[in-house]
Amino acid sequence: xxxxxxxxxxxxxxxxxxxxxxxxxxxxxxxxxxxxxxxxxxxxxxxxxxxxxxxxxxxxxxxxxxxxxxxxxxxxxxxxxxxxxxxxxxxxxxxxxxxxxxxxxxxxxxxxxxxxxxxxxxxxxxxxxxxxxxxxxxxxxxxxxxxxxxxxxxxxxxxxxxxxxxxxxxxxxxxxxxxxxxxxxxxxxxxxxxxxxxxxxxxxxxxxxxxxxxxxxxxxxxxxxxxxxxxxxxxxxxxxxxxxxxxxxxxxxxxxxxxxxxxxxxxxxxxxxxxxxxxxxxxx
Length: 284
Hints:
A hairpin with a 4-residue loop joins strand 12 (165-175) and strand 13 (180-184).
């Protein structure tokens, strides 16, 4: 059984929309079966149809958790006494999820102390670095800030790139209300400079796409996705910055983007993590 209170953003929305947003494993078949059996209550009244819900409604559903939440295959790529690096699948937040467990809450069931040192978008796959103690967390935060830990991404983009390698420069504005970012080639008020470096790994002329290695020189929200789209080469599968017709043609639901390599290049003292200097952690 799960009890929920309807948030303002779901006011006057269908019950199904509200429930799908909160339970990432809930299928339409399971929902309709629950409605038929009157296993859902709104304000303690049993219902059998997909009604509209309103702010502050109390929703109780009698569906087992296994049918509400997806299970995720989280691969451990590297681990020692101080750090943990795992490969995050798509459809999973690193922290603060409204879709059930986050990557951090899942790992917290195994580890007494586990804190992420950076984040990935929910539908971006790849390596996430965790600290296993406070001292490690402080050091790694500082190393990311000073660019002494480099992150490399792989992605498939529409089209053939004009150059085999390029450092792209532009300016990004984050619209928090719309959960979108906008790119400009020239400085504007409220826009922050972004630098995105790409190298072509391979090209598929027949199917008109390229596979790139991308390094974030600056790390802004949706930077890779928005920047590549801005220059006319959106990531295949990207629902926000991509091209729906092309995404459908390739048959992919999520952006083909993964954080696949971490490189530790310490230029200052790293205390108990000095042993990591020069280390490369890669998911192949």
